[in-house]
């Protein structure tokens, strides 16, 4: 097969490309330039497309003996990921930009272009497995990224390759070292790649400005004010900016965000527990269900799983949880995993509604 | 392999390799006073005389540098500082909008750090600076101009500027003018004294000499403040131990390239015209950017004879380049950048092209090793490549999202 290996300059995509080469594929390496203003060097574990990263990706391609190019997808990224991220916060939601990037950039803009240019598949360093078109969690449970891939349709998965999903991360690093790849000991990237200083609130304030609103309790009593709903996420406990404790002395959490009025409701942790919620825009990785089905849901990138009954509706799905979950944030995805002992097959996902 | 990227760098001439290799075996610092030093100095000075003779300069006007970027930096910053020291009102730096980044970024740096005011000289649709445009810019505030810098021939689209006319306008206002002639030396007829420019950049690796070796021709009466301080070599303007082998390689290449230019230029123009005509026969909507190349400027062609810069509507340059590379045809989407990201060319944008046209372009550049077989290979590949790149789509066209 002709395989386009997306090389971020990190260790996982390096080994993924190396494995594609070893499997006998005709591989071309491509680094995605997602920002027009790129920093020369990485700062710690943050950021993912500095010039240092593209240089590292180029060196990996050298060692693997494959052609290497940089493709500028910065406009697509700015529109489909960054603008979506900002708009989502402005609407009182909590977006997941990595998931959006997979949906709109890596397995849309990049994959479409790759297919048109004569490639058969796009290969990435995601920790997930693909067995005959079936998306599964990776062997390394701590690194599993199937959640952020759960937005992919069967036609996208048909042209995807995740060669590192069957291996634990330490073995991937060892493999990179054995191959002489200089990314072997590079720190993992964390946080959001387009907010390299990690200051998400500052990033949003720059783009959205201050939009003052009120902090209220469940009864509607005003407890304080804030600079904008984009500073809050459902389930958040720290940084609420309240100067007096709750009457019962218990910690308070963000329960809900109303973007139009700018009202943020806070209350006790127990009020965060959700037993049923709706979600929109479902995507079915393995084909649409023909009716209600039992599964395990995951409501955020790490943790937050529970058994549930999912019922397709006219405009999305309804999720009825077998046990209540906290931190079910509008804007995040709910991913559905098959209800079998392994529980690792991804059935699809949808976007959690308020 | 079909190498059609001579404007990026061109193979070293065998004579230059031989001369340089021989010089590498010699020991001697050209500044030393003993016999080995004298020998090195002699090699350097003979090289200086050879370069001077080839480009119509005096030996004392040849300052050896590490190449185009250093020469451009030295000219723009050095002359700016010297002019400002003589009269602090001179803060305007007039450079054309199609300059190489070595000039543009030097000028921008002066704006950010030295209180300069940047005046970007507009170009016409062919990418040419007209004497009228320069006159208008100078006349706006004649006493405040520090210097003018306009490249002799553009590296991307190959358009040749009317340097003599521009020199006349600049000198009418008493303002020194520098020209980046990196793409022109060894191709176009260049006589430093006769054309009257105050400073001229040339570099080795664009004309068959070594990388990392170039020169700034600096008129004897033109003052420039040095960037590098040290032992006072090169008229006290450019300190540093002279790189004798590189200087020898450079001078050998300059002499040979200039001597062979008339025949080579005719051959290159024939190959280039054939390439353009055959590509346009296969891809009828492909357009040639820049000057058509049938005019005469200062006794030479109005377009670099080895340059074919084409736009392919509906295609992204990156896609075209990758697909041609896979077919063994090597060309360029514009000027390469360290991170490998091709930005829409500032040259094409200055010429009035849209962002999408600018990004859907390829530069084929022929040089002294190019043959009819190279043209055949490119022509053979182009049809399928364009068709496939078109399927992959053009760059998204819309106002940039300010994220």
TrEMBL record, chain A:
A Pfam family reported for this protein in Swiss-Prot or TrEMBL: tRNA_Me_trans
Domain tRNA-specific 2-thiouridylase MnmA-like C-terminal: residue ranges: 275-352
Record's function text: Catalyzes the 2-thiolation of uridine at the wobble position (U34) of tRNA, leading to the formation of s(2)U34.
GO cellular component assignments: cytoplasm
Active-site residues from the entry: 101, 193
Site-annotated residues for Interaction with tRNA: 126, 332
Catalysis: reaction(s): S-sulfanyl-L-cysteinyl-[protein] + uridine(34) in tRNA + AH2 + ATP = 2-thiouridine(34) in tRNA + L-cysteinyl-[protein] + A + AMP + diphosphate + H(+)
EC number(s) per entry: 2.8.1.13
InterPro entries found in the cross-reference section: MnmA-like (IPR004506), MnmA-like_C (IPR046885), MnmA-like_central (IPR046884), MnmA-like_central_sf (IPR023382), Rossmann-like_a/b/a_fold (IPR014729)
GO MF annotations in UniProt: ATP binding; methyltransferase activity; tRNA binding; tRNA-uridine 2-sulfurtransferase activity
Family affiliation: Belongs to the MnmA/TRMU family.
Protein name per Swiss-Prot or TrEMBL: tRNA-specific 2-thiouridylase MnmA
UniProt KW Hydrolase keyword: no
Keywords carried by this UniProt record: ATP-binding, Cytoplasm, Disulfide bond, Methyltransferase, Nucleotide-binding, RNA-binding, Transferase, tRNA processing, tRNA-binding
Domain named tRNA-specific 2-thiouridylase MnmA-like central: residues: 202-267
Gene3D superfamilies (UniProt xref): Adenine nucleotide alpha hydrolases-like domains, HUPs, Translation factors
Keyword Phosphoprotein: no
Cross-referenced HAMAP family: tRNA_thiouridyl_MnmA (MF_00144)
Cellular location(s): Cytoplasm
Ranges where the record places region Interaction with tRNA: 143-145
UniProtKB/TrEMBL annotation, chain B:
Entry keyword set: Iron, Iron-sulfur, Metal-binding, Pyridoxal phosphate, Transferase
EC numbers, comma separated: 2.8.1.7
Xref: InterPro entries: Aminotrans_V_dom (IPR000192), Aminotrans_V_PyrdxlP_BS (IPR020578), Cysteine_dSase (IPR016454), PyrdxlP-dep_Trfase (IPR015424), PyrdxlP-dep_Trfase_major (IPR015421), PyrdxlP-dep_Trfase_small (IPR015422)
Residues covered by the Aminotransferase class V domain: 2-377
Catalytic activity: (sulfur carrier)-H + L-cysteine = (sulfur carrier)-SH + L-alanine
GO molecular function term, any single one: metal ion binding
Gene3D superfamilies for this protein: 1.10.260.50, Aspartate Aminotransferase, domain 1, Type I PLP-dependent aspartate aminotransferase-like (Major domain)
Keyword Transmembrane annotated: no
Cofactor: pyridoxal 5'-phosphate
Enzyme class: transferase
Keyword Transferase among record annotations: yes
Listed PROSITE patterns: AA_TRANSFER_CLASS_5
Family statement: Belongs to the class-V pyridoxal-phosphate-dependent aminotransferase family. NifS/IscS subfamily.
Identification of the protein by name: cysteine desulfurase
Organism for this UniProt entry: Pseudonocardia oroxyli
Lineage, top ranks: Bacteria, Bacillati, Actinomycetota, Actinomycetes, Pseudonocardiales
């Amino acid at each position: 097969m002709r395989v386009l290996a997306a090389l971020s300059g990190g260790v996982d995509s390096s080994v993924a490309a190396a494995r594609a080469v070893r499997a006998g594929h005709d591989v071309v390496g491509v680094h995605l330039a997602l920002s027009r203003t790129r920093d020369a060097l990485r700062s710690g574990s943050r950021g993912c497309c500095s010039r240092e990263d593209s240089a590292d990706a180029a060196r990996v391609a050298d060692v693997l003996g494959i052609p290497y190019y940089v493709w500028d997808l910065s406009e697509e990224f700015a529109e489909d990921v960054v603008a979506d991220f900002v708009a989502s916060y402005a609407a009182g939601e909590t977006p997941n930009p990595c998931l959006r990037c997979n949906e709109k950039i890596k397995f849309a803009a990049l994959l479409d272009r790759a297919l048109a240019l004569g490639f058969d598949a796009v290969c990435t360093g995601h920790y997930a497995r693909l067995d005959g078109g079936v998306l599964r969690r990776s062997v390394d449970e701590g690194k599993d990224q199937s959640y952020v891939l759960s937005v992919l349709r069967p036609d996208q998965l048909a042209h995807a390759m995740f060669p590192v999903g069957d291996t634990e991360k330490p073995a991937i690093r060892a493999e990179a070292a054995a191959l002489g790849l200089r990314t072997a000991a590079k720190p993992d990237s964390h946080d959001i790649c387009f907010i390299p200083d990690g200051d998400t609130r500052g990033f949003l304030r720059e783009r959205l400005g201050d939009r003052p609103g009120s902090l209220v309790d469940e009864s509607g009593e005003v407890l304080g004010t804030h600079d904008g709903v984009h500073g809050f996420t459902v389930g958040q406990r720290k940084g609420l900016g309240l100067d007096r404790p709750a009457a019962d002395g218990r910690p308070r959490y963000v329960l809900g965000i109303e973007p139009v009025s700018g009202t943020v409701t806070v209350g006790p942790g127990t009020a965060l527990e959700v037993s049923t919620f709706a979600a929109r825009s479902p995507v079915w990785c393995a084909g649409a269900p023909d009716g209600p089905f039992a599964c395990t849901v995951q409501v955020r990138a790490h943790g937050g799983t529970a058994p549930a009954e999912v019922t397709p509706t006219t405009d999305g799905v309804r999720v009825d949880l077998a046990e209540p979950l906290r931190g079910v944030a509008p804007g995040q995805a709910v991913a559905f995993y098959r209800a079998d002992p392994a529980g690792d097959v991804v059935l699809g996902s949808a976007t959690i509604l308020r | 392999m079909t190498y059609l990227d001579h404007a990026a760098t061109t193979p070293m001439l065998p004579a230059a390799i031989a001369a340089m290799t021989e010089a590498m075996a010699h020991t001697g610092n050209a500044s030393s006073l003993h016999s080995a030093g004298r020998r090195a100095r002699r090699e350097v000075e003979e090289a200086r005389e050879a370069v001077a003779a080839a480009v119509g300069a005096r030996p004392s006007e040849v300052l050896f540098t590490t190449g185009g970027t250093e020469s451009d930096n030295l000219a723009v910053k050095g002359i700016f500082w010297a002019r400002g020291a003589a009269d602090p009102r001179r803060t305007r730096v007039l450079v054309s909008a199609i300059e190489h980044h070595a000039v543009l970024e030097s000028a921008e740096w002066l704006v950010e750090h030295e209180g300069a005011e940047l005046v970007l000289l507009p170009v016409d649709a062919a990418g040419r600076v007209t004497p009228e445009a320069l006159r208008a810019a100078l006349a706006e505030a004649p006493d405040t101009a520090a210097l003018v810098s306009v490249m002799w021939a553009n590296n991307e689209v190959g358009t040749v500027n009317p340097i003599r006319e521009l020199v006349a306008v600049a000198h009418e206002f008493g303002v020194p003018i520098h020209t980046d002639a990196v793409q022109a030396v060894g191709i176009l007829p260049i006589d430093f004294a006769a054309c009257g420019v105050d400073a001229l950049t040339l570099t080795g690796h664009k004309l068959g000499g070594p990388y990392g070796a170039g020169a700034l021709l600096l008129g004897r009466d033109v003052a420039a403040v040095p960037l590098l301080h040290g032992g006072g070599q090169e008229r006290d303007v450019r300190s540093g131990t002279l790189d004798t082998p590189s200087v020898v390689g450079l001078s050998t290449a300059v002499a040979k390239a200039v001597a062979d230019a008339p025949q080579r230029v005719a051959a290159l123009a024939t190959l280039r015209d054939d390439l353009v005509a055959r590509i346009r026969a296969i891809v009828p909507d492909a357009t040639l950017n820049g000057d058509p190349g049938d005019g005469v400027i200062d006794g030479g062609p109005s377009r670099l004879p080895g340059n074919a810069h084409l736009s392919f509507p509906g295609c992204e340059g990156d896609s075209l380049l990758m697909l041609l590379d896979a077919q063994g045809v090597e060309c360029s989407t514009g000027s390469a950048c360290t991170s490998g990201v091709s930005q829409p060319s500032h040259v094409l944008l200055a010429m009035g092209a849209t962002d999408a046209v600018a990004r859907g372009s390829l530069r084929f550049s022929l040089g002294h090793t190019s043959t009819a077989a190279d043209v055949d290979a490119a022509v053979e590949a182009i049809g399928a490549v364009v068709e496939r790149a078109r399927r992959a789509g053009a760059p998204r066209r819309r106002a940039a999202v300010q994220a």
